[in-house]
Design goal:
The chain is 5% helix and 37% strand. It is built from one helix and 17 strands. The radius of gyration is 27 Å and the shape is globular.
Length: 258
Amino acid sequence: MSPHGSALLDWLTRKLRPRPPVPSPTVPPPTVPSSEGRPPPLGRAPRLTADFSSREQWVAGRSWAYPDGGPVNPGDDKLDHLVPDASYSRGGVFRASLRPDGDWDTGLLTTEGSAEGFTLRTGDVLDARVRLPTETGAWPAIWTWRDGGNEIDVFEYHPDHPDLLELSNHVRGGQRYYTHPSIRPGAWLELRVEFGARSVIWWVNGVRAFADGTGVGPDWSACLIVNLSVCAGGYHPAPDPAVTAMSYKVAYLRVYGS
């Protein structure tokens, strides 16, 4: 065989030899910011499992967070008229309906003054699952109150800011307007708040949303409030005149001790 033929045979052999597979490029896992992650498992029994139908656990239609215990609180930009009617709160659906005088009958439950007298305390963890309302003017919240203050807002929501939750510590200061695409009118949210002495930590749908770095102090305690308010138009728009009813739902609420 001529040198040229030998070279041609070598070239064809190399060309036709099976090639090893080319490895697929490695795609790194998505980076999780240091302020986010999954909430740790609690691994302990709850101190409170909310039974909104229980008259021993919850008082309906009255709260000392309102002037003279209610039923109205116009100084806080609210059209509320608190009612004890069980259909407004006792099933875990917190409702509001338009009254002939332009105010709104609204549902509120609190552990303050109840027979069981449950209070949150430093080190507790609250878990809840809620479905947000859709109507402009709706103002749902889960929060704490005692002796004219001690307020921590597990959440507040206004549908005119559709992707935003208000998370606030009014005890030692600290607030975040937390935005996320999963927050929207009608959405279900899973909420967790850790009431730490040095930092209150909020989780939303498993994401660490905010740690205030101030906490509630070692001896804090407060009652729970769950309610649906209606905005009067000062801070957020009042309801559209065509709207006569609104609601939001709390599927569960539990409190775990430290």
